[in-house]
Amino acid sequence: MDSCVYDVVSNAVNETEETELNSVETKRIYLWRQMFVSSGVWSVYFVLGLGFGAPTVMIPQIRREANSTDAVTESMASWLTSVHGYGALPWVFVIPLLTRYVGRKIPFLIICLVTLVSFLLFYFSTNTTHLLISAITQGMLLASNMTLLVVIVTEYSSPKYRGIFMIFKSTVFFWGVWVANATGVFSHWKNIGYIAFVCSMYPLTVVFWPESPYWLAMKGRFEECAASHHWLKGYDKDSQCELETLIDSQKQYIKMCAENKRNVAGNRVKFIYETISTKAFYMPMFISVVVMSMYHFSGKLVCTMYAMDLINQITGSNVTSSYGMLIMDIITIIGMQLGCILSKFLKRRTLLLSSATSGIFFLYVISVYLYLVKYSVIAENRYLSILFLTLFSVSISLGPMIMPSTIFGELICLRYQTPCLLLLTLFSELLMATILKISPYIFRTLTLPGAFLFYGLSASFFALLVYKYLPETKDKTLFEIENYFKDPNQRQNDVERVLIKHR
């Protein structure tokens, strides 16, 4: 079996004419194939954005229709805004197991079908309990964000396009948030459910995808892995090198697992300890947690979800808050698109740290400004307030908003993917849901200037950790990134093995 694997790879290359290898048209075909797969994921992110943006406009509309704030109590409003995260928790455990044992396609198809059902319930809901159930059902969609969707984009795309594909998916999410907000401002909030249902149909094209070459290699199905990899990425030198490295790495890992299987069964605790004490496991985990924490503790997601309430508190105008929310959202999206462009020219660390520093600076500026207004040192200017919020939003949108999933998708080693994604998703969903849930109480307890100061100090702490520990990953294969976290002796052994194979 092993000897024929490389024959399959080499024969496929020999049978392909040299003109095809260098053809621009052929490369374009493989790019379109990768975009075909990634666009299904992007559609899911857009739908997820619609679900996240809905409460921002849905809650005020329901209260206006009932002519009473009791129609949606403060407690229910905070639950409708944050329950997606708590609803995701059971699926954080289920989806990684499905992803590991049945592949990438089947779990993705299940998520698409559940999403269709959740937005049908959203559209036909008659009370807030129905909306709460719909939001809980969407928890599966949210859980797939880090446990499956990131994996698909990472494994199905070439290193050359992987970064921009990953970053673009984050911008699509906030396009969904903006469309939901705009729909709620200019029409009835139930139209959001109609748009989401229609957009949920396109990802069903998953039935035409090949299975992930990385999953096939992990299962020892190397011939199918080669066929899938060639369909997605072609036969050029870089793709061929990536494929051979993938197969070689997984062969060694499968062999090691077979040799240690008896020992592992006899000493499970020791095996778990050795896993979590491996640098290739705990360092990517630690860095991913820090990057995600920096984004969530910047307060940007909170500002997005509670945009109308925040702007209304600052400006004292309902009309200004509605249009200010849409303006901030569209400027944020433009910033994210600009971040996609900058990611093609700047290194990951440079873009993330420079934009994070700028965003943190404006958090302090907003806090100082609001304190000066609070103590009547200066007069309040609603346009200046919105300007500062906009500059903060643009800064965070350039990097911290669009790069966390890209970074942890690249950092996590394939052999530790299931436990890492499970733990990271559990942490992320709990952190996001908790921050969204308690944010109204933070704003009420610390007041607006104190809340912005809190977010500024928190984000500063995590930015320092990012500066110290985050490596550069741009234009590197997943194997090269994995090699960075290995111990020096293990890294040298891998290099020697590759050199011997190519002699």
CATH architecture of the largest domain: Up-down Bundle
Total number of β-strand segments? 0
Count of domains: 2
Provide the gyration radius in Å.
24 Å
Query: What structural class do helix, strand and pairing data support?
Result: mainly alpha
Keywords: Membrane, Transmembrane, Transmembrane helix
Transmembrane segments: 36-59, 79-99, 106-125, 131-152, 164-186, 192-209, 280-298, 323-343, 350-372, 384-408, 449-470
Domain Major facilitator superfamily (MFS) profile: 37-474
Pfam family, one: Sugar_tr
Outline the structure in words.
The protein is mostly helical. It folds into two domains: 16-208, Growth Hormone, Chain: A (Up-down Bundle); 282-502, Growth Hormone, Chain: A. It is 82% helix and 0% strand. The chain has 23 helices and no strands. It has helices at residues 2-14, 18-21, 24-66, 74-101, 105-123, 128-137, 139-156, 159-186, 191-199, 213-218, 222-233, 237-266, 268-276, 279-296, 300-305, 307-315, 318-343, 348-374, 382-398, 404-411, 417-469, 478-484, 488-501. Helix 5 packs antiparallel against helix 9, helix 14 packs across helix 21 (417-469) and helix 18 (348-374) crosses helix 21 (417-469). The longest helix has 53 residues, at 417-469. The protein is globular, with a radius of gyration of 24 Å. The model is unreliable at 15-21 and 498-503 (pLDDT under 50).
